[in-house]
Amino acid sequence: MSSDNFYDILGIDANSQLEDIRKAYKRRALQTHPDRLPQGSTPEDKRLAEENFRRGMLGYLEACFSIQSHNRAVNNAYESMQQLAVVN
Predict the structure, then answer these.
(1) Could you write out the three-class secondary structure of 6-53?
(2) Of 18, 30, 45, 52, whose Cβ has the fewest other Cβ atoms within 10 Å?
(3) Are 10 and 59 in contact (CB under 8 A)?
């Protein structure tokens, strides 16, 4: 992926919730899907549209992964604290 921030790619705030990320991805996918190109578009137009669509898809996946990783880290920390409380 390029140096673009995945939140910027999707046009959302870095503090967005998963549902907001999903909505932003769906909106971008509807706007950039290569099948939505006008009839008679050149192969170069199609190539650029496919690339743009993939950037949105990668932005969505990275944003979701970032949130899930954060949630997993919080859950692991919570479980570790619970285990310490049981031991002590």
Answers:
(1) HHHHHCCCCCCCHHHHHHHHHHHHHHHCHHHCCCCCCHHHHHHHHHHH
(2) 30
(3) yes
Q: What is the DSSP letter of 64?
A: H
Q: What is the pLDDT of residues 37-63, one digit of tens each?
A: 999 999 999 999 999 888 888 888 888
| Domain chopping of the chain, boundaries | 6-87
Does the domain formed by 6-87 have CATH 1.10.287.110? yes
pLDDT in tens, 61-80: 888 777 777 777 777 776 77
